Amino acid sequence: MEQVFHADKSIDNQKIRLDSYLTETLPDMSRSHIQTLIRSGEITVNGTSVKPGYALNEGDTIRISERDPEPAGIEPEDIPLDIVYEDSDVIVINKPKGMVVHPANGHYTGTLVNALLYHCRDSLSGINGELRPGIVHRIDMDTTGLIIACKNDHAHTSIAAQLEEHSITRRYIALCYHNITEDSGTIDKPLDRSRTDRKLMAVCRPGEGRNAVTHYRVLERFPVKGNAGSGNTFNPTGLPLTLIECRLETGRTHQIRVHMSSIGHPLAGDEAYGIRKDPLKGHGQYLHAAVLGFTHPTTGERLTFEAPLPDYFKETLDRLRTGARSSI
After folding, report:
1. pTM of the complete model
2. Are residues 290 and 273 in the same domain?
3. Catalytic sites, residue numbers
């Protein structure tokens, strides 16, 4: 399998190592495996073999030429899709909780790619290889909401460029713990793989990792106690909660989850970055990709789509608003 990447503007003047960059870009590959591929010459930069610690420059071309060790064919599966929009270039899906976006270790069936292969047949871009046809960005398995897939390489290149230049609109609704006193804010903290668990991400020191920026604003607050008729709800979880909208300026792995946890407001239900003994544990993190906007690759028209909150998220909010202690 061959993949090609172009180092984006986020690495400029940050002296990011090649192996660190690829570990973030390719979360399904371990850092040690990436280093092995670099040393064997299966990963090159600008057509030349380099060391794992090579400091990337903006615009560097990274080529990965590796024989795919996984099973050669990903089977199409007749999995129902909530299609928000579709034409000959792109398809926008409202992804349910629990669906993995593309095949990876432990997940070779039931993924969005399996469903797309059945629905779109041979009409999917091939830029990201056999395991990721059509996939240009991802959302976590237990994050719900909007994701775009591309049906041809022209559309894929266009959407990828929009992601790189941050011109795609991505807004998420999240429920997080504790009271956020300010009405809005920005988290500007670089992210990298956790040194203690390579499956997780962590905030790192300036100059390390990759830059990550999340803007948020408060939509609603749920204090533990409220006054009847005042608009202040009674929150039966026993912990203050805040409903927020997050706007991504960058799109790093687990970005919103890690950023909100880093400022003391972890997402409800988040078993990786959340609180211990979470009363809302069991649905996955309360995070929903609610708004997706992009410029159409062919027509140039600006398209914006919205997806309603999933039922479990809406039901939790209703219970918080009414103080239905026995229902949470």
Report:
1. 0.77
2. yes
3. 140
